[in-house]
Amino acid sequence: MSPTMSLTLKVWRQANPTSAGEFRTYKVHSISPDQSFLEMLDVLNEQLIINGEEPVAFDHDCREGICGMCSLMINGQAHGPERKTTTCQLHMRKFKDGDTIVIEPWRAKPFPVLRDLVVDRSAFDRIMTKGGYVTVNTGNAPDGNAILIPKENADKAFEAATCIGCGACVAACKNASAMLFVSAKVSQLALLPQGQPERTQRVQGMVAQMDSEGFGGCTNTNECEAACPVGISVENIARLNREYIRATVVGLT
Amino acid sequence: MMTAASPLLNGRCPTGPVADRWQKCKDELKLVSPNNKRKFEIIVVGTGLAGASAAASLSELGYNVKAFCFQDSPRRAHSIAAQGGINAAKNYQNDNDSVNRLFADTIKGGDFRSRESNVHRLAELSVNIIDQCVAQGVPFAREYGGLLSNRTFGGSLVSRTFYARGQTGQQLLLGAYSALMRQQHVGRLKVFPRREMLDVVVIDGVARGIVVRNLVTGQLETYAADAVLMCTGGYGTLYYLSTLAKGSNVTAAWRAYKRGALFANPCYTQIHPTCIPVHGEYQSKLTLMSESLRNDGRVWVPQKAGDTRSPDQIPDADRDYYLERRYPTYGNMVARDVASRAAKERCDAGFGVGAGGQSVYLDFSEAIRRDGEAAIRARYGNLFDMYQKITDENPYKNPMRIYPAVHYTMGGLWVDYHLQSTIPGLFVLGEANFSDHGANRLGASALMQGLADGYFIAPYTVSNHLATRKLEKVTTDHPEFERCLAETRSRTYKLLNINGKRTVDSFHRELGKLMWDYCGMSRSDKGLRSVIQKIRGLREEFWRNVRVPGSGNELNQNLEQAGRVADFLEFGELLALDALTRAESCGGHFREESQTKDNDTLRDDANFCHVAAWQYTADDRDPVRHIEPLEFNDVPLIQRSYK
Ligand SMILES: Cc1cc2nc3c(=O)[nH]c(=O)nc-3n(C[C@H](O)[C@H](O)[C@H](O)COP(=O)(O)OP(=O)(O)OC[C@H]3O[C@@H](n4cnc5c(N)ncnc54)[C@H](O)[C@@H]3O)c2cc1C
Ligand code: FES
Fold first, then answer.
1. Fewer CB within 10 Å of terminal CB in chain A, N or C?
2. Domain boundary among A114, A146, A161
């Protein structure tokens, strides 16, 4: 058995969207290095409940790095210190006995805090409604192999499509820009033949919605890529910019 | 025990040749005229593959759809976590696959406990699913020439599984989600995220709405409709530790059960052979390593019990590739229940490896030598990364250590061929129903079923319900809505006011352990009888001693969980009772009293070739067991063998 850890946690507590929040300090003990970060928070919550306090609210579901539900700024980093890792897949072996860990929600105007560490990311869904799809009704599809797609394009489209929509890119960006998120979807469909007919409307619609939600502009600091738990590349942002210029020049033709 | 066919369970399966039945059914289904469609309201609970595909397709037809999920976005339903792939009888690999072969494999995989009519339809529809998903822009794996690529999954000798690296579920769900978002844009569909369904409202015997809790404000809300579709996924989290998402629950299905929907085969649970082993008391969930890994990984344990050499120091001659030894034809690709039990058998006999001897090796060294590390990385990169993150071991260098874990539930609400439950107007799709996988599900077939149900079956059969049933206009002012709302409110109030000493999680863990120990991979008459008593005791303690902090008028995750665990504490007993009554082994249901001399399942077709569906009576009375007999005309009823 590897030795366990004692930690000091400074956690953001906020009762509801309108109340002022504050940091509160808690101690946890006997944390195993093989425990995940959320399992460490589970320990804290069990302790709080037994002591008659309210547990810390945080979003999570799959706990295997794919649903995009978990979040958390951990010591100022979105999803914590380990690259290409969601909070639920971050393990306590990345910390040391005696560490103090600061835990906050995503901080971005378009993601208002609902309670403690839980934020509202529905802006992402609204961006998707403005073009993050191919218009094809059920039952209309040709044979799967009738559409040939070179492996290289399929692979690139796949890589863009692996975005889990967690919002770390926005949280990591000083401008709260959603460019990485939007570019991932635009790129996936721009790289595939199925995405061509609606290429122009898609990029225009999604970018307009992104702007109206209050996400900031991109100033190329690449913090988004560094924070992305699935490694979505900023190359996609360059492609989004090209797609946008193309759409503006081509117009709706 | 009732032994004759129950009149309550009319499967409505068409007759005639199995291959013509779906067409025959469709020909007889009534249509709603295009102008009338917009007058109908449909509720879809759940936005996984089944729910999202159904909601989008019904909205495309012109109905008004409301879609509900408990996550903050429909894209996060647990279908997102499916890794390995989706089956389709395309025969693109020219390996002599066909609809018939997929049909027969699935019937056999389910150990002859599913309906032939349903399974054949599933195999037929499998080919349309792939086309639909490709058209949406789902980036399936491709060959250099641009054609779709395939891999092999367990329980089959052909290569019919389509995949998107280790993220097939994610890509399929995002495809269905995109269709959902498009319909939201069109304006005929609205998504209600962060809502938990707590009751179904039945008026004049027909499902007409739901009660949900708004998880942000805590408020209870009611919604009325002309049809309700439940697509709420599986209940594997009953076991606490499972590969399911933490929020997965039986609550929606259990509420429907208590309002009159029969619950079929609850004891059919799938324990998946290749998961990362348990490593500590604090653990909150288990992680699957996709079955696709068995394409290249070889499963083994040392020949000698207690061999403590590191795996690379154990020469081939001292290894026992027990699946290849016991099942030479299928080898590492046997069906899941068989692989799981074989792993348990080796570990119980003292041959297991790792801490506590509770795991076996899944070894890629031969594949890496043969194809190179890069090729293996391209096939399974994300799975290997995930393994390394969790265990801190490098699976490219050392074999993975794996052990079976709860993964899927074949049981679910009973549905007829239209996917309608015993409550008219209440349809059940995806993992939440019981229909297609019998006593064991083959890999890559849950995604197929969820999408077949949602894209291609429910749109037709729900239309038929709307076209043929006289549906009075109902609003949420109806007294039945008020009554359900009041009952839900009082249950919440009760939970919040117990103010005991134990946390919700501690009850859930204890229940999960009971279920795993007595109702997991191996079950016995004696154990099941005792666990029923233990569950009752635990339930009694829960309602006396649980502590749920906070109030009902706010975001309160502990309250959400308390409601789910309260339902599990009732449902667990039903599952155990079903397991006790089914005194045979079949698929994932292994009764120690009923096994072959090689420790394989031994069915009792004379007494148990049927679906068991349970009817709720009252909280203090036993439920009634109903029977739907199963007939096998197209796949001969034989003892399953993977030898
Ligand atoms: C790790 C893992 C890997 C898998 N890999 C494969 C694979 O490779 N191939 C394969 O075929 N199958 C696989 N499966 C199985 C398959 O993913 C699932 O069976 C399938 O996706 C279930 O889909 P569904 O739509 O029925 O339910 P889910 O995707 O579980 O969706 C359930 C929905 O219901 C909602 N919901 C649930 N309860 C409530 C409630 N009370 N109120 C409101 N909403 C509610 C949820 O919010 C969610 O939207 C895998 C499963 C797991 C766990
Ligand atoms: S909980 Fe699903 S990605 Fe972290």
1. C
2. A114
User: How many separate domains does chain A show?
Assistant: 2
Rounded Cα–Cα distance for residues B181 and B584 (Å) = 46
Instruction: Supply angle C-alpha B46, B412, B461, rounded to 5.
Output: 65
Phi, psi of B301 (to 5 degrees): -135, 165
Q: Quick one: three-class SS letters along B35-76?
A: HHHCCCEEEEECCCHHHHHHHHHHHHHCCEEEEECCCCCHHH
Do residues A148 and A231 both lie within one domain?
yes
**Torsions phi, psi of A219, nearest 5?**
-115, 30
- Are B276 and B320 spatial neighbours (Cβ–Cβ below 8 Å)? no
At how many degrees (to 10) do helices B504-519 and B557-581 cross?
20
The distance of A144 to chain B (nearest Cα, Å) reads: 4
Largest interatomic CA distance in chain B:
74
Which of A16, A18, A133, A181 is the best residue to mutate to test the B interface, defined by the most B CB atoms within 10 Å of its own CB?
Answer: A133
DSSP string, A129-191: HTT-S----TT-PPPGGGS---HHHHHHHHHHHT-----HHHHH-TT-B-HHHHHHHHHHHHS
Q: Are residues A105 and A134 in the same domain?
A: no
Spatial CA neighbour of B578 closest among B613, B605, B629, B533: B613
* Structural domain boundaries in chain B: 18-268+410-468, 272-406, 479-610
List Cα–Cα distances, B607 to B265, B571, B612, in angstroms.
15, 25, 12
CA distance B64 to A71: 33
Q: How many CB atoms lie within 10 A of CB A217?
A: 11
Question: Is residue A72 within 6 Å of ligand 2 at its C-beta?
Answer: no
- Mark which residues 188-227 of A lie under 8 Å from B by CB: 188-189, 192, 194-195
Flag whether pLDDT at A37 surpasses 50.
yes
Q: What is the pLDDT of residues B228-261, one digit of tens each?
A: 999 999 999 999 999 999 999 999 999 999 999 9
Query: pLDDT tens, B254-312?
Result: 999 999 999 999 999 999 999 999 988 899 999 999 888 998 999 999 999 999 999 99
Nearest Cα to Cα of residue B29 among B469, B471, B467, B435: B467
Residue that is last in its domain, among A114, A140, A168: A114
* DSSP calls for A191-234: SSGGGGGGHHHHHHHHHHHHHHTT-B---S--HHHHH-TT---T
Residues A80 and A136 grouped into a single domain: no
For residue B44, the cross-strand partners are B67, B229
Residue B419 to residue B123: CA distance in whole angstroms:
16
Residue B106 Cβ inside 6 Å of ligand 1? The answer reads no
- Look up the domain containing A155 and give its range: 122-252
Q: What is the ipTM of this complex?
A: 0.98
What is the domain-level CATH number for residue A199?
1.10.1060.10
By residue count, chain B amounts to 643
Q: Whose CA is nearest to atom 52 of ligand 1?
A: B82
Same domain, A44 and A163: no
Q: What is B18-268+410-468's CATH superfamily?
A: FAD/NAD(P)-binding domain (3.50.50.60)
Which listed CATH number (3.40.50.10610, 1.10.260.40, 1.20.58.100, 3.30.428.10) goes with B479-610?
1.20.58.100
Q: How far apart are CA B643 and CA B640, in angstroms?
A: 9
Q: What is the pTM of this model?
A: 0.97
Is residue A125 within 8 A of residue B183, CB to CB? The reply is no
Nearest in space to B270 (alpha carbons), one of B336, B226, B366, B322: B336
Which CATH number covers residue A107? 3.10.20.30
- Residue B72 falls in which region: left (phi positive, over 0), alpha (psi -120 to 50) or beta: alpha
- CATH number of the domain at B272-406, out of 1.20.1440.230, 3.40.50.10420, 3.90.700.10, 3.90.230.10? 3.90.700.10
Task: Give B284's contacts in chain A (Cβ within 8 Å).
Answer: 36, 38-39, 42, 63
